[in-house]
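dumping this here so i dont lose it
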């Protein structure tokens, strides 16, 4: 039996003020073929999973806090207890709009790394409205900051 423990999964901090901890897949002791799952903590007032898309179908389940979810041309606020379906290939972004940390669980399938993790750390994330479609009107801007100290290649 393999048991993972969130308290023991270090995770990775990204320039967009978030910590991502792999629960299934990645650096987790629990591995699956058909899906990956993780726990994300967005810093108050702007922590973000920046505007991106991926081939995998995905869901986000908000555990705590208040967030802004952008999905395609839609923008909505989400709070604890709500879940959103993210179809394959659709651009999406989640931003913490509250003064406390916001947390959510993601699950996508099939399993595997998603390109935006490496792009964010390398400082090569496509910019909304330039390289990829624009965010919905009124959305918080996409964070494309480089990591402190310069690009990180993983």
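and the seq i came up w/
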């Amino acid at each position: 039996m393999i048991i993972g423990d969130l308290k023991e999964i270090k995770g990775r901090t990204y320039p967009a003020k978030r910590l991502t901890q792999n629960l299934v897949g990645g650096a987790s002791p629990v591995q699956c073929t058909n899906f990956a799952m993780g726990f994300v903590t967005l810093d108050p007032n702007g922590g973000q999973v920046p505007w991106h898309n991926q081939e995998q179908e995905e869901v986000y389940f908000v555990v705590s806090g208040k967030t802004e979810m952008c999905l395609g041309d839609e923008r909505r606020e989400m709070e604890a207890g709500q879940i959103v379906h993210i179809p394959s290939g659709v651009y999406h972004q989640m931003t913490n709009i509250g003064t406390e940390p916001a947390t959510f669980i993601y699950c996508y399938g099939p399993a595997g790394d998603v390109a935006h993790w490496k792009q964010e750390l390398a400082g090569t994330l496509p910019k909304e409205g330039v390289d990829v479609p624009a965010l919905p009107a009124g959305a918080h801007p996409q964070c494309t900051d480089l990591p402190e100290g310069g690009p990180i290649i993983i």
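Residues 115-122 form the longest helix (8 residues).
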